[in-house]
Input
Amino acid sequence: MIRVLLVDDQPLIRSGFRALLGLEADIEVVAEAADGEEGLELAREHLPDIALIDIQMPVVDGIEATRRIAADPTLAGVHVVILTNYGMDEYVFDALRAGAAGFLVKDIVPDDFLHAVRVAARGDALLAPSITRKLIDRYVSQPLDTHAEAGLEELTGREREAVALVARGLSNDEIADHMVISPMTVKTHINRAMTKLHARDRAQLVVLAYESGLVVPRNS
Output
């Protein structure tokens, strides 16, 4: 059972998500919160698998809530997915660096939303296509992070290859086909890379891959 916490200051949005998720046999909404501070308290109480958090809320916003969840060792199993109305704004980079596992725009179709919840529950990075494209484009103008670049020296060649393919948006199965190895071996490479780079999840691996120059954004 995938346990979900909803954090959004709009009751109508929360009720809509709850109704949709409630129809699924493998998903359970365990709690709702109207701001980030309440969401953090409920996360500690219920230990959900997924926290769907609105990016702009009163009291404590989505970025700060994400940062506090990521910094709390007792919440290491909670994957934060940021909800936004805009598809891309100035907050996306801050939220990724704070520890968000991914982003979804609120106008996503129901089937894609349900798929996204399941993807995030598996620990995979989750970025809506519109956000992924703009996120990658943004890195064209960003200077390389020398600290992130140095961290890559800890990785083996196969781990670097796996991280690069994660950054390109490939799933474990697709990476396995590309590298001609089993999906379990892919998972091992990625998990070891996350440990060496101190990345909370695959989303942070993507950020590190671009910041370090391991993956070069394409302008097309």
Observations:
- The beta strands are 2-7, 27-33, 50-54, 79-84, 102-105, 126-127.
- DSSP finds eleven helices and six strands in the chain.
